[in-house]
Amino acid sequence: MALPPALHTLARRLMFDLGALAYDGLTGQPIWREQVLRLLDHVEPSARPVAALDLGTGPGVSAFALAEALPGGSAVTGVDLSPRMIARAKRHHARRFPHLEGVSFHVADAARLPFDDGAFDLVTGHSFLYLLPDAVSALREARRVLRPGGVAVFMEPAAGGALLTALRRAPSPAAVVRRDPVGAARFAASMALWRAASALHGRMDSDRATRLFGEVGLIDAAIRPTLGGLGVHCVARRPAQST
Hints:
Layout lengths: L4 H14 L1 H8 L2 H8 L13 E5 L5 H9 L5 E6 L2 H14 L6 E5 L12 E7 L8 H11 E12 L5 H7 L3 H7 L1 H21 L4 H11 L2 E8 L4 E7 L6
Parallel strand pairs: 1-2, 1-4, 2-3, 4-5
Antiparallel strand pairs: 5-7, 6-7
Helix pairs in contact: 2-9, 3-4, 6-10, 8-9
């Protein structure tokens, strides 16, 4: 029997509080950061500063990667339901990324964001929507805080796909292992756990993503495979003329 939304949210917070250290260890490596940056392939390059919101930021890996890649003067705000995840993100910011002055972190529920309407040019999420009991509420909030014309980009586990198939499709896997064997091992472990978790929580396909975006008024949905078919990039935007 499905848990009521409030209990599901509490269980999810406890799960990620308890798993913050392990999740940090699995995702804090170069290959994961490279995958985060692939989200920006779907965003029109900008010469001006960008205000970005990273949902489900965890220990901050995705927020730091985005901040380093976006134009100078950009601001990246990371939010997560787990206080321990946000505590780790703030610790990493202070110790490893103090030069990234435009980064901030907040404990917040994606379904009730503490930000003004139209506050962000870009909303991102990496391995995020599939864990939510109510993805529609989170996407409705993402649309609200996007400026008119702003873009939302999510990377989610794909319906279908297989680890062995993805490995065969990977460009020069041996070279990647030689370059960073420890990072490659951590990334492989994170992918295996990601597939196991998504088998329980649900995966994304084109029809589901398009339906979710359409339900909240995000338009021009585009769904693109990534990670050798293990994942999908789900892209949409808020209409330029807000309704």
